[in-house]
Amino acid sequence: MADEIEPASRSNSSLPARVKFDLDYAPALESTSIVSIADEYGLFIGGQFVEPESGEKFTTVSPSTEKALSQISSASAVDVDRAVKAARRAHTKVWGPMSGRDRAKYLFRIARQLQERAREFAVLETIDGGKPIRESRDVDVPLAAAHFFYHAGWADKLEYAFPDRRIAPKGVVGQIIPWNFPLLMLAWKVAPALATGNTVVLKPAETTSLTALLFAQLLQDVDLPPGVVNIVTGAGATGSALVDHGDLDKLAFTGSTSVGKQIQRSASARGVPLTLELGGKAAHIVFEDAAIDQAVEGVINGIYFNQGHVCCAGSRLLVQESIAESFVDRLKNRLSTVRVGDPLDKNTDVGAINSAEQLGRITELVAAGVAEGAELYQPQCSLPDRGYWFRPTIFTNVQQSHRIAREEIFGPVLSVLTFRTPEEAVAKANDTQYGLSAGIWTEKGSKILWMADQLDAGVIWANTFNQFDAASPFGGYKESGFGREGGLQGLAPYVSLSSPRGVA
Amino acid sequence: MAERLDVQKTYKLFIGGAFPRSESGRTFAVLGPDGSLIANVAAASRKDLRDAVVAARAAQPGWAGRTAYNRGQILYRVAEVMEGRRTQFADELRRCGVEARAAKQEVERAIDRWVWYAGWCDKFHHIAGTVNSVAGPYFNFTTPEPTGVVGIVAPGTPGLLGLVSRLAPALVSGNTTIVLTGEASPFTAVSMSEVVATSDVPGGVVNILTGATHDLLPWLLGHRDVNAVDLTGAPPDLQASVIAEAADNVKRLIRGEPDDQSPYVIADFCEMKTVWHPIGQ
């Protein structure tokens, strides 16, 4: 093991030079023939696809080609109201009274259908959102199916999740999800809500509606009773109409901290129960006694996975000063073999930025990093001519006060800072408004547990990063939100608990 | 022999383990049924509130850093010290209009509630935490941690039992607290401060502010260094715009029952932390 530890004295010149290997793999394009995208889609309300009241539609494009894919309906407040009414009816008449055993069976059906049609969902997710097919195929879709499978089993066992309580569903739940993991975030929202007996009105993100609409078709195929899940597509105005609707029993939102605060203002003032999964600026902490090769892989995966469009991305590398120089060298070396390009190519590591708007935000923050004096490194990989792209980026010489060390970039941009002692690492890691996730790399067990205790973060990965599982609760401290998704703790936001003896 | 003249008590705030008057110099009068003055009680100002937040923040890592066993013993000590003052607490409730029998019962239940929650300190992790069976070679567990600095709006009724029912569960996991007790039951609130101050609870862990809740609550909800606010005792006419202030730092808002005892209440004052580590050779 000792051989894996990079001595500080070892000069950089003894590292493998950034040799130009021939890494031009032959293209391995995933066929898109399995997917058929309609010219236009309606809203999914009461088990049917219906036209929006205004007739208004917007174009959704593929971020890797900029080609128009389809016309998506824009739901107004009137449409949202229809959806909430459908959900209310379904809750009162069908889903609320249904036994947990039968709810479980519907959820198992959904999980199975997702597995059966996994390839179709994966390809569509990649076309619509720009993420590498390797990730939608191996991460997004299998985890989404697993989430339904896991929660299916809870539906008839809730009395074991909440002993000594009378358990009731909240009722009708409004859910708003982001564009970075469209189907997976849908699963994180819908599965626990249905398992606990709620009905749902879900709004997908404006740029990534297609897998949600395919999911709606799947719900028809499994004969889910009409109105149990309703999907209203649209932009921010649709989201606002949902948040402001007066007949919701709970709201759940995943997205940016600024929008999350607006939603909290509205919901908490009306006393509507709320869970928020918001932004992050995770510290990824590498000690000198880490398994360095594994840590390099972990840091690369931590920030470039899904183009860095990950709320828990390891966007701040805190590396111990004694190994900082050689570690950054290894990162740069590793970056030269990261393949950026067509997300449908099975060799691709980093796909397209999700939208022109997001590309603009990343570009602006990277420019701020340069202007504030940080040192920029980007590998000179070639990028496709069309679509939205950003080179994987490493900033060194970053100060704690720099915008790139404080603000969520939500792109493939790593800010490197250094520390000397574990105490300093903790102080720097916790010096942020966020508290979603953190990473620790050291071979010393007691240090892992001490660090894990000290860090203000809801998810802590030690000697690994970006692991997700339906059985593992996910969610933040501080301004990264409240409430958990997944696991036993993820059920709580969707139930109302009371004492079986009445108030004590 | 001449009748002994009473020594009258000054009812002050409890901040950082000390008993200051309000920096504002303000008090509010508590009158008896016949309209005569019983006492002038300190009316906390927003500056007092901010001082209390500073004290609570400073005390938080130390309190959370105690072993659960130690926190349990300290909370049990609160009950012990309170037990010796049963008559005093009951008298004070009666002065605020509670009938004698009900007052005695409320004090006993409040003491028993401290005992009940004291015992949870080293046990609620068994209930709220989990080891999670993830689909891969990882050890994965979730453990509750204190949310941090918590503001508590104590219910006006029951005056003593409501205060204890909201304060004790917040302390179990290692939160530090700023409690607004309003104007309804100030005597038991101040006596509770005295019990806390003499029970090995470190200074700053519990801060108790008497005074008009509607004056203080906007500043509590808007304070950026408060992590959560328990609104169980908040006035029903609390303005939406005031509650909205809590969103500025994504405060957790808790709404519970004024007379509840349950490990679920402890969890309401907690964050869940999940840790992953690979399993391998």
How would you sum up this structure, described in words?
The complex is a heterodimer of chains A (504) and B (281). Chain A is built from 15 helices and 20 strands. Chain A has helices spanning 77-95, 100-116, 118-129, 133-154, 158-161, 182-195, 210-221, 236-243, 257-269, 292-304, 324-335, 356-371, 403-406, 422-430, 445-454, and strands at 40-41, 43-45, 48-50, 57-61, 68-73, 166-169, 172-176, 199-203, 229-231, 250-254, 274-277, 283-286, 316-320, 375-377, 393-396, 413-419, 437-441, 459-462, 481-482, 495-498. In chain A, a hairpin with a 2-residue loop joins strand 2 (43-45) and strand 3. Chain B is of the alpha/beta class. Chain B has 10 helices and 10 strands. In chain B, helix 2 (68-83) packs antiparallel against helix 4 and helix 3 crosses helix 4. The chains are: A alpha/beta (504), B alpha/beta (281). The A-B interface holds A 146, 162, 164-165, 257, 260-262, 264-266, 268-271, 276, 278, 433, 448, 452, 457-464, 467, 469, 471-475, 477-482, 484, 487-489, 492, 497, 499, 503-504 and B 128, 130, 132-136, 138, 140, 142, 227, 240-241, 243-244, 246-250, 252-253, 255, 257, 259-262, 264, 267, 271-278.
Produce a short descriptive summary.
The complex is a heterodimer of chains A (504) and B (281). With 504 residues, chain A is of the alpha/beta class. Helix content of chain A is 37%, strand content 16%.
Number of strands of chain B: 10
Order of helices and strands of chain B: EEHHHHHEEEHEHEHEHEHE
The largest sheet of chain A is:
7 strands, mixed
Percent helix of chain A: 25-40%
Low-confidence stretches of chain B: none
Strand content bin of chain B = 15-25%
Strand order, main sheet of chain B: write it out: 7-6-5-8-9
Low-pLDDT runs of 5+ residues of chain A are 1-11
Biggest interface reads: A-B, 50 and 38 residues
Shape of chain A: globular
Shape by Cα distribution of chain B: globular
Strand count, sense and barrel status of the largest sheet of chain B are:
5 strands, parallel
How many domains of chain A, as an integer?
A: 2
State the CATH superfamily name of chain B: Aldehyde Dehydrogenase, Chain A, domain 1
Rounded to the nearest angstrom, the radius of gyration of chain B is 20 Å
Q: Mind telling me the CATH superfamily name of the largest domain in chain A?
A: Aldehyde Dehydrogenase, Chain A, domain 1
- The pLDDT mean of chain B sits at 96
CATH fold assignment of chain B: Aldehyde Dehydrogenase, Chain A, domain 1
